[in-house]
Amino acid sequence: MCNHENDHQHNHKHRKSVINRLARIEGHVRSVKQMAIDERECPDLLLQIAAIRKALDNTAKLILTDHMENCLVGAVHNGNEEQVLQDIKKALDNFIR
Amino acid sequence: MCNHENDHQHNHKHRKSVINRLARIEGHVRSVKQMAIDERECPDLLLQIAAIRKALDNTAKLILTDHMENCLVGAVHNGNEEQVLQDIKKALDNFIR
C-alpha cells in the first residue's frame, strides 16, 4: 500500500481492518440497493447512505493513519518525504474541501 | 419510497437511476476492497474512497429530489406536510453538519 517503502508493506497494521471494513460497506451498499428496489421510504434510504458515508470516512482515516505511520515515517528516515507529503496533501484535498 | 403518499410511489422518476447508481457504487467498493487485498498504494485507495463518497452524495441528492418532488408536494396538497418536513430535516442533518 506504500509505493515508496516497499519493504515496509507488512507494517501496515490496519490493513486487515481496512479490508474487513470495505467488505462490510460493500454489503451495506448492496442492502440499501435492495431497499431502493423494495420501494422503501426516502428518509430510511438517506439515513443508510449517511451511515455508509461515515463508515467510508472512518476507513479513509485508517488508511491515512497507516500511510503516515509507515510510508511517511519511512520516507523521512530515507530523506525522500517530498513525494509522500505531496501524495497525502492531494488525498486530503479530496476529503476536506 | 414515500410513506405519506403511497399512491405517488410510481412518480419517483429517479428511482431506477438511484438503483443503478447504488449497483455501481457496490461494484466500486468491491474493487477498492480488492485493491486493499492486493496491497495497492494508500493514496490510490484514498482517491477511490473519495470518488465513492462523491457518488454516494450525488445518489442521496437524487433521493432527496425525488422525495421533495413527490412526497413533500403531495403532503402539502393534503395538508400533512409537518411529518414529511421533519423527516427531511432529520435526513439533512446527517449530511450537513
UniProtKB/TrEMBL annotation, chains A, B:
It holds the Pfam family Trns_repr_metal. CDD domains: CsoR-like_DUF156_1. InterPro entries: Metal_Tscrpt_repr, Metal_Tscrpt_repr_sf. One of its GO terms (biological process) is negative regulation of DNA-templated transcription. It comes from the Bacteria. GO terms for molecular function: DNA binding; metal ion binding. Signal peptide: none annotated. PANTHER family: COPPER-SENSING TRANSCRIPTIONAL REPRESSOR RICR, TRANSCRIPTIONAL REPRESSOR FRMR-RELATED. This is Cytosolic protein.
